[in-house]
Write the structure tokens for this entry.
Amino acid sequence: MRLSRYFLPVLKEDPSEAQIVSHKLMLRAGMIRQQSAGIYVWLPLGLKVLRNIERIVREEQNRAGAIELLMPTIQSADLWRESGRYDAYGPEMLRFRDRHDREILYGPTNEEMITAVFRDNAKSYRDLPKIFYHIQWKFRDEVRPRFGVMRGREFLMKDAYSFDLDPAGAKRSYDAMFVAYLRTFARLGMVAVPVRAPTGPIGGNLSHEFHILADTGESELFYDAAVEEITLNELAGATPGSEIVERLQSIYAMESEEHEKVADCPVPADKLRRRRGIEVGHIFYFGPKYSAAMGCTVQGPDGTPVHPEMGSYGIGVSRLVGGIIEASHDENGIIWPEEVAPYKVGLINMRVDDARCAAAADDLYEKLAHAGVEVLYDDRDERGGAKFATMDLIGIPTQVIVGPKGLEKGVVEVKDRKTGAREELTIEAALNRLTA
Ligand code: ATP
Ligand code: MG
């Protein structure tokens, strides 16, 4: 993509409405614009990142055996009356009426709908186990939308729902999602700590929240220092039954309110850490709560009807964009982990008025594009300093700088955004490196 033809409205100054760094940087880097409180337009650069995260989430859901479908954003009030949640949900739910005066709502989550779909279309235990997921916009009329996409009102979520014949099966589904989450966050370049979450009044349930450690997180966590020894490699290679799963499910990590309730903390004081976290995922095993309330049964192996054991599994896809920035930036801007970067290479032509520079940069651009490398090519008539600042701000992992001095020596400069390391390479060598 040539920057001269793109739409990248960067801001030089920190916008006053933003309190945390990810929100500031997303506005400054031209990724989002607020439309109304907690509702954002995803500008082209922001959308590319969102789509990359979505793709990784989808790949890991598929790998775990979950099946993608797509449920609508609009739901009927009657569906929610079946579970009893229409009245229980409260003002976070956006409720309205259609032209026939039927009560409808913008879905804040989809347990009811998926339970109805399964109830109406599955008949026997042979239809189990199943995990369904979709990646869809949600609306929650949050009391205090803030921090940009971190706590929006309209936000993109991956939500999955499992159906199993018995609790042992449900635990296998839960573990499959647990593994998918470890792998997903690791591929996004982050260690997300599984935190034991409160499970409400029904005993025997199981729930974990996944938190990115960051000072700007809304939750306060207490955890065993052993958490800090977990490596991205271990997480990225997690499989069902692998030792890391057992280890992480039993490791001590809790939100402060839960930690306060623990009479005897098993972690000695010098090993107990306290930090803030951003909740990026939440998995929940809740048994037959919805299947029983909504009359969802399948015929069991012995002919008697069974309410499937269910779980639900959310990932905040749009929140992750902000969360990744909180965990990965410096004073000059964003530092995208390779897999989510909107472009892999940022190509800078230092002198558009120099025919030799322009020809060399154009040629490099064509060759990289031809090799399938996603390049953002700054071909604008701007000062070099402004171009460097923009590339640093938007966080593309590798920069290639083509200037007249280098070309005289037959080289271009290759800069690593994360380390700042610069290297002079021949055009040939740079091409080889970037297409490897
Ligand atoms: P929170 O405690 O942050 O409000 P939640 O418990 O309401 O989260 P879930 O209902 O489990 O969240 O939703 C699944 C995931 O969706 C969360 O882990 C989070 O990453 C994301 N999410 C929830 N609410 C929002 C929001 N208002 N804006 C952006 N992402 C959100
Ligand atoms: Mg919430």
In short: DSSP finds 15 helices and 23 strands in the chain. The domain at 345-435 is CATH 3.40.50.800 (Rossmann fold). The longest strand covers residues 272-287.
